[in-house]
Amino acid sequence: PGCPLSIRSCKCSGERPKGLSGGVPGPARRRVVCSGGDLPEPPEPGLLPNGTVTLLLSNNKITGLRNGSFLGLSLLEKLDLRNNIISTVQPGAFLGLGELKRLDLSNNRIGCLTSETFQGLPRLLRLNISGNIFSSLQPGVFDELPALKVVDLGTEFLTCDCHLRWLLPWAQNRSLQLSEHTLCAYPSALHAQALGSLQEAQLCCEGALELHTHHLIPSLRQVVFQGDRLPFQCSASYLGNDTRIRWYHNRAPVEGDEQAGILLAESLIHDCTFITSELTLSHIGVWASGEWECTVSMAQGNASKKVEIVVLETSASYCPAERVANNRGDFRWPRTLAGITAYQSCLQYPFTSVPLGGGAPGTRASRRCDRAGRWEPGDYSHCLYTNDITRVLYTFVLMPINASNALTLAHQLRVYTAEAASFSDMMDVVYVAQMIQKFLGYVDQIKELVEVMVDMASNLMLVDEHLLWLAQREDKACSRIVGALERIGGAALSPHAQHISVNARNVALEAYLIKPHSYVGLTCTAFQRREGGVPGTRPGSPGQNPPPEPEPPADQQLRFRCTTGRPNVSLSSFHIKNSVALASIQLPPSLFSSLPAALAPPVPPDCTLQLLVFRNGRLFHSHSNTSRPGAAGPGKRRGVATPVIFAGTSGCGVGNLTEPVAVSLRHWAEGAEPVAAWWSQEGPGEAGGWTSEGCQLRSSQPNVSALHCQHLGNVAVLMELSAFPREVGGAGAGLH
């Protein structure tokens, strides 16, 4: 039966009843899947079918759960909220879920949990709250869950000490099983041991105090001048109401004193997991020299961090105070003595919303004042990016990647690339390109990665042209993406998976495992559904600036249609209904017959033949500033005016072609003097560039050009365009 849903990113289907409950009358049982989207909050319960028994909301962008978030879903039995960014769960968030048996809140940012969090769940059997940021749990936190049988609560901060001792006898009395995945992180003596296998006596608060977090900023010796301002920030684990942060100067307690220029703020507690205290010396005098200390104290003991301050007279030679603003923050460098390296704290707290697998994040920028009293360039690499997206993408690059987490990471990363049109930092592109390259190493084991990689590359083609150009200049990011896509077929295909076809908004991929000796030719046409305007039919008249590349609706994906042999293909008379052909390529039957007999293997191996089409030339950026004489008129540059189509092989060679590769390409921009071009990786600085060698234009009409090439690779038509992106170089790069 039908199962209509008014929520675009959700899918609904029927679900069979389990056990004997099948005979109970009532609404049809429904399973609703809203995973892997961009939902910032759960869907309104009123929009879901009455009979919803399973609701999957994993891998979204949900940040919090309000009171009554699921009120009305009275038949719900399973709720999956894992892999979101939930940090707050209001009391009563699960009210009305009287039939719920399974709740998964794993891999979120939850630090505060009380018994009120789980109100309204009388039948809950299984609870997963692992992978969050709490380090301990208060007694009574599960009191509202009388039916609970299994709980998983392992986190990277989980501290197995006296504060958790209540849990073992409570679980025993309730016949509750602590999941074997619930492992202690602290103290070090119990690290990686299963909490459920410990004895009560092992959960004690004795010995040296161990904190999962303890930072003092600045942490290295500071040389300051009289009259300077110096802020301190101390952050530590919050392990209960008795956690306190105290400050000392030369072992004497420090109290706030505005008259003396000592400003001491109230300690702040974050997510029931961290405590932070800030101390500012607003007008430093010689008295401030010496040792400043931040001490974290609780019943179990104390832990300290210290830093030395040296106060100088103002008559010494120094670099002047200076302000520097960049993508890592706004830094005010104080007057600094010649020969001294100055340090500035980064603006963010020293813990982030995504765990940094590569170790604790750096918390300071440094800048040296040379002996002549001149500032050297600063080192800001240890600071987090100020832009939220850049900061998150950077944490992806730092995470260790393996076969078990690659697909999860890729799905999470794809969510962020969906916002690629609003990327504002070239490093956003650089980091995604590096991740696409890493994922390539796992496509042989995880075929599902191919679709996600192509999707991400397609999304990055929506990034501002200038940022793409900067990212290519910085790290060859665009070349990395194209190179990774070109190698997908060779990595993913095998005798068990002989064909891949992936469609995305701006990229399509087709790859085949073929036997060269039985190959008879292949012709592929890239097309899209005809919705609204058709690329190649442009408003306006010659002489006006051409519009930018068309932005297709989300459902207008690029697709390939491939046939063997040598059928006659015309872009203008494409035979699939309501579709428009954008590019075609004809690979001749003689493709593999041109190898010299001496090089041909006795038993030809299987060979991968792969095709790609890119909607435009945005990922093909050359840095050469000069065109050949006559290549374009004064003040104009050649730019890619068509899709870019690629053909390549892996696992077998292709010699000098006896017959050319025939390509037809539809224009999306107006221009003059079309030239057939092939993308060579040996471009300026080994970053690649367009060359006309080996490709010739056969014919060019206002909408379509036909060309012949003597080799495989990426092919496009360049034209002298009258409107260009604002960067030098860019997609409109000269031939070389």
TrEMBL record:
Localization in the cell: Cell membrane; Cell projection, Filopodium
Pfam families: GAIN_ADGRA3, GPS, LRR_8
Protein name as catalogued: Adhesion G protein-coupled receptor A2
A GO term for molecular function: G protein-coupled receptor activity
The entry's keywords: Angiogenesis, Cell membrane, Cell projection, Disulfide bond, G-protein coupled receptor, Glycoprotein, Immunoglobulin domain, Leucine-rich repeat, Membrane, Phosphoprotein, Receptor, Repeat, Signal, Transducer, Transmembrane, Transmembrane helix, Wnt signaling pathway
Top-level division of the source organism's lineage: Eukaryota
InterPro entries to which the protein is assigned, alphabetical: Adhesion_GPCR_A, Cys-rich_flank_reg_C, GAIN_ADGRA2/3, GAIN_B, GAIN_dom_sf, GPCR_2_extracell_dom_sf, GPCR_2_extracellular_dom, GPS
Region (Disordered): 531-557
Membrane topology: Multi-pass membrane protein
Stated role: Endothelial receptor which functions together with RECK to enable brain endothelial cells to selectively respond to Wnt7 signals (WNT7A or WNT7B). Plays a key role in Wnt7-specific responses, such as endothelial cell sprouting and migration in the forebrain and neural tube, and establishment of the blood-brain barrier. Acts as a Wnt7-specific coactivator of canonical Wnt signaling: required to deliver RECK-bound Wnt7 to frizzled by assembling a higher-order RECK-ADGRA2-Fzd-LRP5-LRP6 complex.
Ig-like domain sequence ranges: 226-310
SUPFAM superfamilies: Hormone receptor domain, Immunoglobulin, L domain-like
PROSITE patterns registered for this protein in UniProt: G_PROTEIN_RECEP_F2_3, GAIN_B, IG_LIKE, LRR
Membrane-spanning intervals of the chain: none
GO cellular component: filopodium; plasma membrane; Wnt signalosome
Oligomer status and interactors: Interacts with RECK; the interaction is direct. Interacts (via PDZ-binding motif) with DLG1 (via PDZ domains). The cleaved extracellular subunit interacts with the integrin heterodimer ITGAV:ITGB3.
PANTHER family: ADHESION G PROTEIN-COUPLED RECEPTOR A2, G-PROTEIN COUPLED RECEPTOR 124-LIKE PROTEIN
